[in-house]
Design brief:
heterodimer; A: 419 residues; mainly alpha; ABC transporter involved in vitamin B12 uptake, BtuC; 2 domains; 72% helix; B: 507 residues; alpha/beta; six-stranded mixed β-sheet; 22 strands
Chain lengths: 419, 507
């Protein structure tokens, strides 16, 4: 009854949900701000670790210009190496070589986009899918098993079967968490984290056991290579690693856009994610939506796992096939604001970090861990939107903090005009 | 102490919540601030209480300019506030709550509870409050909890007392008692600011009335002004406060509820053996003080309560034990009590909210795909029909005013082919102008031959809308009486007294 701006929108959901909403609704301005800030902080770290800067700073007060020159060298060198390694190599002799880094970036981006979409779909349904690792491993195992284990199928059919197997395995693994949440209320964060362990050791067991995933005659826990008939073909020629998995990821982006924005199911996901109570009152089956959302999420992460073993790592894989992508996907989804296009952009950015990081290390001696630091800083800044907004003086998204009085008054004013 | 506000202006961004407000409250005077929700009353009081800093203007106490940087300063200066939502720690005793924030300690940092107890007893005796200092607050009835709030303010020697919508949670009897307390405090020399939007209360206790609209004081009124005069000042135009309705044309069929029992997860009985029927073309208002099982009753009707026994027959079809989806599909329209949490998805657009309960089938979904054109056409039509004041159907519902939000809920629920309409607190937190509209729509639904169940805690609304009134107390039905039943009888029934006894008691 009061007109107090603060009374009506008291937080009723638990803090996870509030944090989730805050994060999921991050505006692209905040995302860009976070990237810029992270890169700036990264520069400071590059400067501190650079030997040239350290040497010059010893005599900073006699010749400060040396320090600044060294700073410029270190930071400029590092980031231009990052660019050379990820987008366009201007030192290459042929055009094909010059754009190779770009194809590398897209290659790295492929699983990040697919898995990022998986996390994003779950986000939109109000679910924190931390189980990317487990889902990827299971998907890789299933796709890989079909890829090398099934004999005699012709090319597109074999590949298709392997892809479906991978996607299904990821979906099932995530679906377990969805079902447990829907039926018993078990928190999906806990369940998906635990399923990561279960998935890891399950796959490790299968890799170590001859007759399951382990290559015959091999002493290592590694699978046989994927059969040619089950491999994703190269996209731009044999010389580049980029494969059709990237196209699948792009199709997934469009598919998820349609799912979230144009389908009944996506509408229900979003309603449940934003306000499960209102969704329930409106007759939406919340447990069903939760379960299906996790199935979709797992399927998308599964696509990432399948695309790895069918496209990128075709000569047999071991238990590190997930390569941390399941967790990077969370970052990608956060940075992408849980929207399909945002995830696409964020996935490519992170792919560029991965592709360029090694070039940075090789040519400039900057430890490529700095890339990880920058990535982590991005998440940190994304998670603190008020900080980013304050630094860049971005406008406050006033609707969430000060609803009540203002809007009612505006409405009242309008009413007066019309009355 | 004399309170004076001079030219108080408070802005939130581009919005001016308080626009050069001048207000003088003399000691020994009850000054009523009357205004619609969102008029800026609470903002003004939050400025007074140090929660907000005014952009312009000053606060004077006995002609001395004050500057408050927080409620602590305001309290120290002698301003006490009784909030609508009690600021009490439920598991603490009355004495502990009263001392909270300015604890007195004995040697060694031990809390001096005895001093606090004595203080409570003293104030309690002075005003005849009958409050036990050792009672745990959560065990006390709401009316008594409010007295604890008042004691809290008085224990800090407050000379200026602000009551912010204090009657929202009280029974009519408790409200009358509060009025008595306010008069007593006034006679004791306190300057009292009484914020409300209920006209009856205003005329009962106010010495002076200031009407706030759109952040400005738009006029002073005398307590002898009529309801219509006050309401039109508040809203800025003439308002019809009574609901016009013809005699009901009652159908044979409708809703029949038999021996309905709702239990909580922990086994507590929330709705206790409730039976009633509502036929097509009549309005049954479920009246009662908040928290006496009305919410659970409506939730049981709609299929939201898990543990339900008994039967809910709609046109001969059993609804008990069905899912919400099935109940909605059976033709039940439902306006939930808490629209921001249960009725709407705040981040969704108006158009999206209008299709919320038809998210998986025609007309808005075909073959799994949303029919955006159909949805938007429908949304534009409903926005116009229900007079939702918005910039467009793509506006987020969370940004609308309470009244407009409720119109969206109503538009959604009333645009299906209904066989039963259930509305819980349909006008809570809604401005006077929208209340009028919502009442009209409810009556129109009844006149279309639909059985209507309305839950209301406001006696005025219950009497205005009802063909019959069912009063609930502690989960049970106290009685089902005609809408012509005298108010005081209804009030006593709301306190659990059976109608026949109530009529004797009130006579």
């Amino acid at each position: 009854m009061t007109a107090g701006p603060d009374t009506e929108h008291e937080p009723t959901q638990d803090r996870w949900a509030t944090a989730l909403q805050e994060i999921a609704s991050a505006r692209w301005t905040v995302a860009v701000g976070a990237v810029v800030l992270a890169v700036l902080v990264g520069s400071v770290m590059i400067a501190f670790t650079d030997e040239g800067v350290q040497e010059a700073s010893v005599y900073f007060f006699s010749r400060p210009s040396d320090t600044f020159a060294a700073l410029g060298d270190a930071i400029g060198g590092a980031y231009s190496a990052l660019f050379r390694g990820s987008v366009y190599n201007n030192r290459a002799e042929t055009f094909a070589q010059a754009i190779r880094p770009l194809t590398e970036t897209l290659n790295y981006a492929t699983p990040l986009i697919a898995a990022g979409l998986g996390v994003a779909v779950a986000f939109r349904a109000g679910l924190f899918n931390i189980g990317g690792q487990g889902q990827m491993l299971l998907a890789a195992a299933a796709a890989g098993w079909v890829g090398f284990g099934v004999k005699g199928l012709p090319f597109p059919l074999h590949l298709l079967l392997a892809l479906v197997a991978g996607i299904a395995a990821g979906a099932v693994w995530a679906g377990i968490a969805g079902l447990l949440k829907a039926r018993t209320g078990a928190h999906e964060v806990i369940v998906t984290i635990m399923l990561n362990y279960v998935g890891f050791y399950l796959v490790f067991y299968m890799l170590s056991t001859p007759g399951l995933l382990r290559a015959p005659g091999s002493a290592n826990p590694k699978t046989p290579p994927t059969a040619e008939s089950a491999q994703l073909p190269h996209l731009v020629g044999e010389r580049f690693t980029l494969h059709w998995g990237f196209v699948l990821a792009l199709l997934a982006v469009v598919g998820v856009w349609w799912l979230l924005n144009r389908s009944s199911l996506g509408f229900q996901f979003r309603a449940v994610g934003q306000n499960p109570r209102a969704a329930r009152v409106a007759g939406i089956d919340v447990p069903r939506a939760t379960t299906i959302a996790m199935l979709f999420a797992g399927g998308l992460v599964g696509l990432a796992g399948a695309s790895q073993v069918l496209g990128s790592v075709t000569n047999g894989f071991s238990s590190d096939i997930d390569a941390g992508i399941g967790f990077d996907a969370i970052t990608v989804a956060l940075l992408g604001g849980s929207g399909p296009w945002g995830v696409l952009a964020a996935g490519i950015l992170f792919g560029a970090f991965k592709a360029g990081g090694s070039t940075m290390q090789v040519s400039e001696g900057v430890p490529d861990e700095i890339v990880l630091v920058v990535q982590s800083l991005i998440v940190l800044f994304i998670a603190a939107p008020p900080l980013v907004r304050a630094i860049f003086r971005l406008p406050h998204p006033g609707t969430r903090k000060r609803p009540g009085a203002g809007d009612r008054r505006r409405a009242a004013k309008k009413k007066e005009v019309t009355a | 102490m004399r309170l004076e506000l001079r030219g108080i202006t408070k802005r939130f961004g581009a919005l001016v919540a308080n626009d050069h407000i001048d207000l003088v409250v003399e000691p020994g005077e009850i000054h009523c601030l009357l205004g619609e929700n969102g008029a800026g009353k609470s903002t003004l009081m939050n400025v007074l209480y140090g929660l907000y800093t005014a952009d312009e203007g000053e606060i004077l106490l006995d002609d001395a300019v004050q500057s408050f940087s927080g409620p602590g300063d305001a309290m120290a200066a002698g301003i006490g506030m009784v909030h609508q939502h009690f600021m009490l720690v439920p598991v603490f005793t009355v004495a502990e709550n009263v001392m909270l924030g300015h604890e007195q300690v004995k040697g060694g940092g031990v809390l001096d509870l005895d001093a606090a107890r004595a203080r409570v007893r003293e104030i309690s005796a002075r005003f005849g409050f009958h409050v036990d200092p050792d009672a745990v607050v959560e065990d006390l009835p709401v009316g008594v909890q409010q007295r604890v709030e008042i004691i809290k303010a008085l224990s800090r020697d407050a000379d200026v007392l602000v009551f912010d919508e204090p009657t929202a949670v009280l029974t009519p009897q408790e409200t009358d008692e509060l009025m008595g307390i306010m008069r007593q405090l006034r006679d004791d020399g306190a300057a009292i600011v009484f914020i409300t939007h209920k006209l009856r209360e205003v005329r009962e206790v106010a010495d002076k009335i200031s009407v706030v609209r759109l952040g400005k004081i738009v006029g002073e009124a005398s307590p002898t002004a009529t309801d219509a005069e006050l309401a039109s000042l508040m809203v800025g135009r003439a308002v019809s406060l009574t609901v016009h309705k013809d005699a009901p044309v009652v159908a044979e069929t409708g809703l029949t509820v038999d021996n309905l029992v709702v239990t909580s997860e922990t086994g507590a009985v929330l709705v206790d053996d409730v039976s009633f029927d509502v036929r097509g073309g009549e309005v049954l208002v479920v009246a009662g003080v908040q928290g006496n099982g009305q919410t659970e009753l409506t939730e049981a009707l709609i299929g939201l309560q898990p543990n339900v026994t008994g039967s809910i027959l709609l046109d001969g079809k059993e609804l008990a034990g069905r899912s919400v989806r099935e109940v909605l599909d059976a033709g039940v329209g439902f306006v939930p009590e808490d629209r921001t949490h249960d009725g709407l998805v705040g981040e969704f657009t108006i158009a999206e909210n209008l299709m919320l309960d038809r998210a998986d089938g025609p007309p808005f979904v075909r073959k799994g795909a949303l029919q955006l054109a159909e949805r938007d056409r429908f949304a534009r039509e409903k926005v116009a029909e229900f007079d939702v004041r918005t910039q467009g159907i793509e506006a987020a519902v969370g940004r609308l005013s309470g009244g407009n939000q409720q119109k969206v809920v109503l538009a959604r629920e009333l645009s299906r082919d209904l066989r039963l309409f259930v509305a819980a607190q349909p006008t809570r937190g809604v401005d006077v102008g929208s209340i009028e509209f919502i009442h009209k729509r409810i009556v129109a639904t009844r006149d279309a031959g639909v059985p209507v169940v309305v839950v209301s805690t406001e006696l005025d609304e219950a009497v205005a809308l009802a063909d019959r009134i069912m009063v609930m107390y502690r989960g049970r039905v106290v009685g089902i009486v005609p809408a012509t039943t005298p108010r005081d009888v209804l009030g006593l029934m709301m306190a659990g007294i059976l109608p026949q006894d109530a009529e004797g008691g009130a006579a």
